[in-house]
Every structure is written in C-alpha cells, then in structure tokens.
C-alpha cells in the first residue's frame, strides 16, 4: 500500500517537478505526452477500472465511461497545445507616430506559471484525479504537476501516476513532470511550498477553503482554483410542468440519483409550481426515485454525512419526504427527495439548511405559488456551477422566460434550458465553474479554457527577433493564431 | 474640502453602484460613457491640471501628458468595447455523434463581475486614479466603480469623479456608475462590502497586502488585482557597456530621476560590469544625475521615507554613493545613486535591503565580475513589473544574450532590450503586471487585456435563440469576433 508523504517527500517531489519544468517548454513534447498518456490509459483500462471499482464502488460501466472521458480530455488538451491559440499572442509593431506618445514594439504571449499542485477529487477517481482535467490542463500549459492523491482511491492514483510518468518518458520528458503524494499533511505542505506556483482543487467547501486560505496567506500568495460545492438550482415553469410533468419528474430522478448523487452538478434544489401539474411532477419523481436501486457511497464518512444530512433536513417544520432518503442497509443508501413550500425559504431561518449542498442521492423540491417566490428563493442562493430552467414550448420565444434565464445567469457558470446539469461535456465552450463557493476563482476546470489557469502573460519590448521566443517572431514559424496591430490573424 | 466617508456613506455608494449595474449591460452606452469622459477631461484640462499640480507638485508638463494618456486610455477601452473580442465568445453547436458522449449546444461569453472597488495611486493622480485604467477597464467590462480616493489628491479626485458622473448622465447612464469615497476606514470597509465583487489597487506592498488579505478573508472571497511594488532590475552586458557606456549612463539617469523617481517602473537595481567600460558608465551616470534638478516628492511622508531609506542603504558596508541622494532642502530631495559589488548580494544578509524598492530618485548600481554573479543576484530577486537588458550590437543575434532574455522572463511581466522601463505604452500587447509583489494576480493594469480582470465566463446550454444574449445568437447581429466549432470567425 501507499505511504503518507513526509515533509521531505513533499519537498523532494516539488523540487524534482521544478527541475523538470524546462523540458516542458517544448510544446511538441507536451502534446506527445498527453496523447501517449491517453493511449496508455486505454491500453491498461481493464486493470485501472478494476482497481478503481475496488476502491470507489462506482461500478465498471461508470468507470469505463470516466476513463474514456479522461483519455478524450488528454487528447483535447494536446489539440489545444498543437494549435497554440491559448498562448494569446498579441503583437503591436513600433509606431513612432502613435499618440499620445510613440509606441515601442510590444509582443505578448503567455508562459507557464511553474509547478502546479493538484488536489484530487473523491468522486471522480480518474477524470478529476491524477490523470484528470487539472493535471492535463497544467501539463498542456507547460507546468509540472504534483498531485495530492485522494485517500479514497490511493491504488488507482499510484497506477495512474505510473502511467503518466511512463508516458512522459516515452515522450522524451523527465518522469518527474508528474508525481503523487499521499496524506493530509502532505496536502497542507504542498500548498505552502515556496516552489509551488498555483493549485487546483476539487472537493468540499471546508477542505477547499482551508487550502485557499493557506494559499492566500503565503508570503507570496499563489492562484488557487478550487471547485468547492454547488446546489445547482432548477426552476420548472408552470407551462413546463403542465406540458411535461411526467418527463421532468423522471428526468430529475435520473439526474439526481446518477452515480448515487455524487456529482458536483447534481440538481439539489428544484423550484416546481404548486397545483396540479406540479403534483403530477412530484408523483412521477416519486415513482422514478422509488424504482432507483440502493447505492453505495464512496466511503463510510460520506454515508454517515448523507444519512445525518437528510435526517436533519427532513425534520425541519413543513418538510415532507414523499420518498424518504437515507440508510439503505449493508453500506448502501436509498435515494429520496424532500418537499417544502417556497414560503419557508423566502426569509433567513433554519430552512436555510435546504439551500446547502447535501452530497448523495437527495434533492429538495420547493413548491412555489408565485413568480415573486421564485425570485426571492433564487436571490437567497450562493454561487453555483449550474442553474437550469425547464420551460414550456411557447416560452422558447417568450420575454418572461428570457428574463428568467437572465436572472439565473448571475447565479451560475452554466445555464441550461430543458436539460439536466449532470454530464459536463468536454468542449471549447464549456464552463465548469461559478461564483463562490462553486469556484474560488473565475475559471473553469473543464474544457479548453481550463488551460488559462496555469499561465501568465509576459511582454517583450523592442526585442531583436533572434532573442524572442519563436512564437513571437514576425515570420511566425509555428503558424500560431495571433493578433497583430489590432487584427486577428490565422 | 472632502469629508471622510462613514460606514453608511460607503454602504450607500456601493448599493447605488450595484443598482446602476443593469444599465451598464448596454455596450453602446458604455463606449459612449468612456468617449464622453475623455472629451470632458480634455475640455476641463487646465482646471484639472492646476488642481492636480497644487496637490501633487508633479508639474504641468507631466500632468498634461498624464491627462492626454488618461483620455487616450478611456477611448482605447471604448474601442475594445465596440469591437467585442473581449467577450471571448466560443460557440460549439450540438453534435449528437460526438465522442465519447453526445455534445449539447454550448455558447460561452463573459459577463461583468459587478461592483468593482478601485484604490487610487498617489503617483498618478489621473492615469491610475479616479479616471484611470482600473476605472476605465471596469466600466468597459460593464462594472460600476466605487473609487477609494488617494489622500494625496482629494480635490483632483472629486473633480474627476464629477466629470465621470457627468459623462455617465450624458451617455444616458445613472451617475452612480462611478462614485468616490475618501478615508482610510472607507477603504477597509469597501473591500469587505458584500456587494463589492472585485478590487483593483495601485500602491505600496504594506497597504496592498493588507487589502489583499481582507479580500481573501471575506466569507465570499473576491479577486484582488493589486500592483504593489517593483525593483525593475537592469542588466548591462560588458559588450553594451564597452559600446555605449555614456549613452547608457545618461539614459539610466533620465529614467530613474523621471518624475523624481516616483514611477512603479523606475529602474532600481542595475547590474553593470566591473572594469573600465562599467566605470565609464558610472561616470556618465554621475554627471547626468548631478545635473538633475532637486525635486519635490508627492508628500512629506514619502520624503521622510526616501531620506531614511537612502541613508540606511548608504550605510551598508561596501556601499558608496558617487552622487549622494537625500534631503534637497525646502521640501525637495536630491537624486543620487549607490554602488556596491555584486559579491555583497550573492548571499542572504543585510545587503538584501538593496533589493527592496526605495520610492524616489535613487538607484543601485551593482558591479559584477562574472556571469555567475549576474545569475546569482537575479536569482535572489522577488517579482517585478519589468526586467531590462542592455546588449551590444553583435549580441542581437547571440545565444548568450537570448539566454539572458530567457533568464529575465520568469522575473517580470515585461522584458525590455536596450530601453528603459519607465513609460508604459497603452497598447493591446502591453502587460503591466508581474510575479508577486509586482502584482497579486496574473493580470495587467495597462492595455486592452486589463478588461479581463472584471469579467467571468458563463456558458448557455441548449438555450433557444430568443432566450440567448444577442452576442451568442447564430446570426451574430452585433458582428462580434468569435470561435465557432473550433474555428475563429470575424
């Protein structure tokens, strides 16, 4: 089994990563590393999935899907590296006649920040852990990575780290561009290490905030990109409920019970209209939820928290449990949901608990009578990764639906119409982040722009061509898209 | 005269700014505001310059130049708003056949963060104060601004705020998109106000760090873009000294004494070779520095700090003062410079003081014998806004000069060859920021990309066209440059 890293182990890993950084300057080697890592993960898929399933109980189908996603993501970042638009090259030629003062020759692009610390998630042993998006985007940016493994899947972490290091060697890079450390103390030491220049985190609000605070308190503070927690509100309009109550109820059940509710994008609060169409929605939701099999959570602590969390919520005045969530026997939990009248949530009070994330297969259906109640409840929510609205057919070109979409926008990093937030497509336009506590920064952890987290701009002034990085020379030997004298090129 | 803002005053200003935010959604109104503000500043230039000169003693020529720069900057951000590339629009159409899973329709752009707190600088009463780059870029992004005025120029601040508010009214916007508060306590309250969503700062390390810490310690932390301090190292190669000792000495004197050394980009540490060419450089520097007139610093406290700072530095063993900086009589200070052997700086010790910024007309010339000494001294410096190298003619295509440029890059946000760092061109490729303490983030406070500080991305998934912001519709009614299905358009 793995051993907890000592202070010396952490120091050694960070120093080795820093020493490996210059080799990552070669963008060709970076994309080769990412593509090789994808291929090696796929080659070793049966072994990885078996190891991860033994540690997380997420099941082979889900883990095979996650592995495919992880490999896809590695290759997508290799494409980003090869294209070079992420370097954000801007060139302004000298203009002696510029006003109010003459302009020198200025050439800007982005350079890697240096060693990145990645804190792996419990709920995605691959896609948000050692070989996941934080690691892939940091390597793509040219930053070596030291991963703090999640204690929930240490063997999977070791296995994936060995694969990434093998991929580095095959790409002609030092293996130390990726390494892994284990243990709580190692994580704390990592974020404070003088040679660590940025951190990525996926996990709980308490753990993430503690590390964010440590990053900010350093003599030299560093960027901390943490994804901490999200309620992911959903609003169902009366028209949507009238038209598709059964479909929405079933869709909601499928979304909030997916992977036993262990997604950061799980819809945790659903505003559904009072009255008959809303009743039908709740009935359909109850049927589909009852049919969901009991599931095993990632670990015993999460199970305890879930059972206690749903019990505390269900005990609040006016809260009912049409399908009671909770202990499912033999380490399992049962999916369920709660309902409450919106009037209970329009003012500060004990029902605020219902607006806090509860990890696991539970959601809260808030029944509203008026649009004002919807506005009021939404106004009391913290930041989210996602916000969703279900509308009726005629509302697709309706001003009040447009106003509702506009009202959801300040709440979240992704706004969905007539969909479910679970399932985060890896795509250039994806944004997986949102106002605090969803994210501690304005960045995304999924999609092409996740690479921006690990870069900083630098500008060269009046620098002779031979002394410039090739990306900034007029002849553009690498064919990189850039903006020259105010105009996009390539 | 102005009065210090009470807690209620600050709260009122922030709430009024937040209430004005929706009006700033209109990009046309934003660019009209910025252009009108530029015109009104120019119209009132004599009055503004007179007021600022009475408060700062910076002199009419410098202040007229600063006003021209400020107006240019406002118009440059209006151009940025009109073009729309800053919205970073990325559109991925739905792809049901995408691997590893079908892709929904995803459309991303950037939205304003909300109310921005701006902490004005002492040394630029216009360009980095009320009507300066932080305010201009925040308004361009669509964020209302509450400025904490610098106590060194309260009347100038009031005057400029009135002009900006008048410009807002003329552009059909609420005047409260800009307001000003005065007083130390007001500044502390501002960064902690729940409705403030980001902050920009230009000033000292101690003040900036205290506000940065307060921003990070909030229940909901906010981005804090602070420019705190910079030494701006310069390396003169032996070849450069041999070819242009006199020119470099005179250029250095002009740069470090400009505006009595009160620029954040003042070259504060110069690595010059030992031996005859370096001696000639020092002689030329001494002549030009001696010829510089005594100057008045921004306020009495700065003068005291400067006099004490240069005295403490000059008293270090091995430090000489070929032209002694210090008290110039009648509120003035004399420009001067110190010299020291590089060997004194290659290890930790009392001479570390020489690697800290000393605001005012002083620089430190460090005489080196070997390249190793240069590498060692550079390796001991904190982050900087700029780093400069002066090279000889033949070195413009020389591998060792290229290596030196590469070595300066990790130290700074702007690298210059054969130039002087004072004078920061307002241009798209400009980057005025650098590793901590130069900046508390990876952003710039000058140039088009300064707008990025006040935005966050949001993605719409499967959203009907009529419910989307016009910037994200397929017909692109506003003609905004964007990336669609991986390809740049427009």
Describe this structure in words.
The structure is a homodimer of 490-residue chains. Chain A is α/β, with parallel strands linked by helices and 490 residues long. In chain A, 38% of the residues lie in helices and 20% in strands. The first copy, chain A, has 2 domains: 7-228 and 441-484, Aldehyde Dehydrogenase, Chain A, domain 1 (3-Layer(aba) Sandwich), CATH 3.40.605; 233-417, Aldehyde Dehydrogenase, Chain A, domain 2 (3-Layer(aba) Sandwich). Chain A has 13 helices and 20 strands. In chain A, the strands form 4 sheets. Chain A has a 7-stranded mixed beta sheet, sandwiched between helices. In chain A, strands 18-2-1-19-20 form a 5-stranded mixed beta sheet, with no helix packed on it. In chain A, strands 5-4-3-6-7 form a 5-stranded parallel beta sheet, sandwiched between helices. The longest helix of chain A is centred in the first third of the chain and has 24 residues, at 60-83. At the A-B interface, helix 4, strand 1, strand 2, helix 8 and helix 13 of A face helix 4, strand 1, strand 2, helix 8 and helix 13 of B. Chains A, B: Pfam families: Aldedh. Chains A, B: InterPro entries: Ald_DH/histidinol_DH, Ald_DH_C, Ald_DH_N, Aldehyde_DH_dom, Aldehyde_DH_Superfamily, ALDH_KGSADH.
């Amino acid at each position: 089994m793995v051993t907890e890293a000592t202070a010396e182990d952490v120091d050694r890993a960070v120093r080795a990563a820093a020493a490996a950084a210059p080799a990552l300057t070669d963008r060709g080697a970076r994309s080769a590393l990412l593509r090789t890592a994808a291929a090696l993960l796929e080659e070793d898929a049966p072994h990885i999935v078996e190891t991860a399933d033994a540690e997380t109980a997420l099941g082979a189908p889900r883990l095979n899907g996650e592995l495919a996603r992880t490999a896809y993501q590695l290759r997508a970042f290799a494409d980003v590296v090869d294209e070079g638009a992420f370097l954000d090259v801007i060139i302004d030629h000298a203009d002696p006649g510029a006003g109010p003062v003459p302009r020198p020759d200025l050439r800007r692009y982005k350079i890697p920040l240096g060693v990145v610390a990645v804190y792996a998630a419990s709920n995605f042993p691959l896609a948000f852990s050692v070989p996941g998006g934080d690691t892939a985007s940091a390597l793509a940016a040219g930053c070596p990575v030291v991963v703090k493994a999640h204690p929930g899947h240490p063997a999977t972490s070791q296995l994936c780290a060995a694969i990434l290091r093998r991929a580095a060697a095959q790409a002609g890079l030092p293996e130390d561009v990726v390494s892994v450390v284990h243990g709580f103390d190692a994580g704390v030491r990592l974020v404070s290490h003088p040679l660590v220049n940025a951190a990525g985190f996926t996990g709980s609000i308490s753990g993430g905030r503690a590390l964010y605070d440590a990053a900010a308190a350093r003599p030299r503070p560093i960027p901390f990109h943490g994804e901490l927690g999200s309620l992911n509100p959903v609003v169902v309009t009366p028209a949507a409920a009238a038209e598709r109550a059964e479909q929405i109820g079933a869709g909601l059940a499928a979304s909030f019970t997916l992977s036993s509710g262990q997604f950061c994008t799980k819809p945790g609060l659903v505003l559904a209209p009072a009255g008959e169409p809303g009743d039908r929605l709740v009935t359909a939701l109850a049927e589909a939820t009852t049919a969901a099999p009991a599931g095993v959570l990632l670990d015993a602590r999460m199970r305890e928290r879930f059972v206690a969390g749903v019990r505390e919520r269900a005990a609040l005045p006016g809260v009912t449990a049409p399908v009671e969530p909770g202990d499912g026997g033999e380490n399992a939990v049962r999916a369920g949901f709660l309902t409450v009248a919106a009037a209970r949530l329009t003012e500060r009070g004990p029902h605020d608990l219902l607006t806090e994330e509860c990890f696991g297969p539970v959601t809260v259906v808030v029944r509203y009578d008026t649009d004002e109640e919807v506005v009021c409840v939404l106004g009391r929510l913290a930041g989210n990764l996602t916000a969703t609205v279900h509308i009726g057919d005629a509302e697709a070109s309706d001003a009040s639906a447009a106003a509702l979409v506009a009202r959801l926008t300040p709440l979240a990093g992704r706004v969905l119409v007539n969909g479910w937030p679970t399932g985060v497509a890896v795509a250039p336009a994806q944004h997986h982040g949102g106002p605090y506590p969803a994210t501690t920064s304005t960045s995304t952890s999924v999609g092409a722009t996740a690479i921006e987290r690990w870069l900083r701009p630098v500008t060269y002034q009046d620098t002779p061509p031979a002394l410039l990085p090739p990306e900034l020379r007029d002849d553009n030997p690498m064919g990189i898209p850039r903006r020259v004298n105010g105009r996009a090129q390539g």
